[in-house]
Amino acid sequence: MTSLPKHYIDHCLFQLYLDKTLHAVHRGKVHNLLLDRYLSLNPSIYHEQGQPFYIIKDVPDYLDFQNHLPPSSDIIKVPQYNGHLVNLAPYQNLSEYLNAQLSKRNIKNLRAKKKKLESLGGIGYRVLSGDIAELEYAKIFNRFKELLSNRFDQKGILNRDLPHWQQLYRFTLPKLCSGEAKLFIIYKNELPICIALNYIVDHVMFSHIQTYDTDYSPYNLGDIHIQFQLEWCFSNNIDIYDVSKGTNPYKEKWCNHRYRLFHEIVYSQKSVTGTIRAKLKKMELNLLQRFRNIGILGNLIQMDKWLYKTNKWRK
User: How many domains does the chain have?
Assistant: First the structure.
């Protein structure tokens, strides 16, 4: 089995949901504070050997981890990005959630767009998981990459998964076969026009990558697709649909809970170097977050747009 792509290593949110892995500092039960219940899983454990300083990124505040710090070590928690999720637990069905979350106008527009899309003919919906022939999987994943590349070219933003696509391809297949991952696909005449790759951990579905065919933008495919996914969640006892870190109008429209992600700096109090590095890293992270809060990072300066232009120039 292929390991998790390296750009997710030490990122708690992705390690947990994509690979059911926890840092040794977090070993033990994982408590979902929103639902007051524990995740049913036996996670693998990874850790740094004897390092006086390291960082665990993207630790969500709605999950409580049992910390097991090494002797003479301490931890500094620094708030960073926001994340969004859909808490379905208070609702009996999709209709209840739509009525609580969306305006009557939005609901009417969603139904009209879905009806208009389906009037084209040949529209189908499928959740792909379990046994799957690798030839079919390869065909879908190639289409997935094509749609994702086109979408991010249109936005002029670097996508950090595309450079690791082959590794993600190898990593995802066994997860699909075991039922730990799902591909939610909307088809037009057997050709995928909207694809989402999600991971399942107990009562949580984690949204990893979503994209669509930009030729169908007038139909609000993103809204139709998330409705399709939420309907599946209600039918399969999924209470939390986590759409990961970052904020945009789409997430704010559909999600009813915003959470905070923290970076955790773990350091040895016996190490002068480790202690200094920890304090300096805390100052750096606080400064970066302050720039985000006032709109310099992520607004005036958008690193992924700059990296996209740089990579295009290099190509």
Answer: 2
